[in-house]
Amino acid sequence: MKIEKIHHVAYRCKDAKETVEWYTKNLNMDFILAIAEDHVPSTHEPDPYMHIFLDAGDGNVLAFFELPTKPEMGRDPNTPIWVQHIAFKVKDRDTLLEFKENLEKNGIEVLGVTDHSIFHSIYFFDPNGHRIELACPDPAEDEMLKKLDAVKWDMLEEWSKTKRAPKHAAWMHEKELSDV
Question: Is the residue at 14 inside a domain?
């Protein structure tokens, strides 16, 4: 018994139409499906919703629910805003920079490029307040992933005992954090 892949990831949105337009315009995703009901199929409770689906590439589906009868959506006030996000992979650094330029041209504030050694990222928010990351692989990604794979269990074990960052992979962000 094994999971095959993620079928879809679903988030809440403020406005389904605005969300579809934003993702198609800014991230070139295709709008692939909409489902709207007056009752929730799993719980049978009366609650009208619009459920939209976008093609996030390579069989990955990003979905949203608009829930007009529910209180305005919020976020967990105890979790820093940088923690909860969805990351999409792009081909290479040129593509990453092209997305950054296009997003900024469309008035979207972009953070980065952040150097994570194995990959490089930009960060921004969608119109619903969800943090989005676009990441491209580093040319030396495979070599660095092998180094990380060799220490993952030791790092996890140390963390579980101390709740302090183990130094096995401190090399990853040395460049990015050199001025901290």
Answer: yes
Does residue 72 register a pLDDT over 80? yes
d(CA 131, CA 151): 29
- Which token pair is 149? 């794979």
**Which CATH number goes with the domain that contains 119?**
3.10.180.10
Q: How far is residue 52 CA from its own chain's centroid?
A: 17
* CA distances, 116 to each of 40, 87, 121, 164 (Å): 41, 13, 8, 20
Does residue 109 sit in helix, strand or coil? coil
- Catalogue the long-range contacts made by 96-102 (C-beta closer than 8 Å, 24 or more residues apart): 96/120, 96/121, 96/122, 96/134, 96/135, 96/136, 99/27, 99/134, 100/134, 102/26
Specify whether 26 is located in the same domain as 53: yes
For residue 158, the enclosing domain spans 143-179
pTM > 0.85: yes or no: yes
What are the tens digits of pLDDT across the range 136-180? 999 999 999 999 999 999 999 999 999 999 999 999 999 899 887
